[in-house]
Design goal:
By secondary structure, this protein is mainly α. Helix content is 56%, strand content 0%. It has one domain (28-219): Leucine-rich Repeat Variant. The two termini are 30 Å apart. Its main location: other.
Amino acid sequence: EGKKLPEDPGADTVDFPKRTTPAKGYELLFQPEVVRIYISLLKESKTPAILEASAGAIQNLCAGSWTYGRYIRSALRQEKGLSAIADLLTHDSERVVKAASGALRNLAVDLRNKELIGKHAIPNLVKNLPGGQQTPAKNLSEDTVVSILNTINEVIVDNLEAAKKLRETQGIEKLVLINKSGNRSEREVRAAALVLQTVWGYKELRKPLEKEGWKKSDFQVNLSNASRTQGGNSFDDSTL
């Protein structure tokens, strides 16, 4: 009791615990049929406030290591909800983008979700970062940029393929620019530094990165005030 159960990377189906009494009160918020409603709203609604609230509800339900959080992370995959949330990263509303990012970070605690999000959501996450050749450039708030950076870090921790995808989508350029441009906030710099440290931690990537002209010093940032333990089963537990 109280021990965290490891996620099963091979579990693509999920059966919620059988109930002996009807759900009531706050329990109604995390029943399977309600989770399906959230997913339906994410796929069908065109209203930014509804999309933000639905993604925010999923973010909150998937925060922490409680029993239903684990089931809901698996259920979102089974119900094809991951792609619906990843698609929101291209939305015109910044509030929707931030909510989607927070939801994906918590969903990525499930190892199978982490693998899928790494394959399919990294490009859209990178597109939301400042810098690069995108036109028009996105001008997202500090909170949203930090959320995206923390989500990227969660996805690439213990996930070499996602780190490769980050490199392939010009993510390294944007991360180094955040650290060295001098016009980003301390929170953004620290969050980007954590991602860069995670990337450099993969020995398999060092030679390819060096061939592209990157140096070890590009991945070394002063983290004296930053937590070095972000990612790897951390959660975005901010609420809406």
